């Protein structure tokens, strides 16, 4: 099969890692695999398998987007095109409706669209595309949701019966994690560990709510010595640093920025905490579980509760509750979960297991 994955750029993010994992899987299976990017940018470009073809748009100007996309689709004649965000999903479906192509469009819903829509009151072009979900999603050749919660949410939002949406979890566990987690980490709190290290890996953005985590951590620090590392980059760096300074936590909390291999940091820490207000799946949770670390996550809509199986493989805290999050962190430090169980759970999301479901789906679509 000739398969293409379509996204804006390959910068930090769970969707981008899923695209890389998926593309590399199909390439290993002998398929002709490409990644179409609106802009050939992003940290993950440096680590992508050379067998995968990168196809950038000729122009990323809004007026030229359709022409660039049409030229690529007609020239490459893909069997399958996979997209993974509402604006790109609608763009891909509309483009197919406007041109003659046999390419099957598979759209994936990776985030809590309703929460994402309500997060910002500004009416942007991206936000306007959400109104197109009930109009255009039905014209896709296949619709995939990455969690059961997202599937139910999307069924209501897109005005589609549940059976029209396939639920396939993200392929978050890869064999490369086993070697990546052994990579060196050059940080004094890791190299010369004197206190337990709590770690968070996420983009520094409103939805990830690291401000809640920092305030919960301040409560934890009143009861025991501990450090907090926040791995990731984003628009709220200055706001979070100001909060750290305000609470006089500069000696205890460190924003270490984006790291190309965050799992190495997680593997050398003592507790992983996800403080998000909402998620779609939670790729980083699976990667954390793969190291055997105990995890605490907010019980946010939708993916994290599914990943930790409603508390069996991680402690669940109430969304937005500083008190509950700090209590769960203290409890988790005192009562870590069995490493072997955490690792076994992560393997439920192995790329080979998950991607076989996509392989079956793609094969069924191209057989029609």
TrEMBL record:
Domain Glycosyltransferase subfamily 4-like N-terminal: 13-171
EC number(s) given by UniProt: 2.4.-.-
Enzyme class, spelled out: transferase
Keyword annotations from UniProtKB, A to Z: Glycosyltransferase, Transferase
Residue span(s) of domain Glycosyl transferase family: 191-347
GO MF annotation terms: glycosyltransferase activity
InterPro entries membership: Glyco_trans_1 (IPR001296), Glyco_trans_4-like_N (IPR028098)
SUPFAM superfamilies, sorted: UDP-Glycosyltransferase/glycogen phosphorylase
Domain of life of the native organism: Bacteria
Secreted found in the keyword field: no
UniProt xrefs under Pfam families: Glyco_transf_4, Glycos_transf_1
Name under which the protein is recorded: Glycosyltransferase
Annotated organism of origin: Pontibacter locisalis
Species lineage: Bacteria, Pseudomonadati, Bacteroidota, Cytophagia, Cytophagales
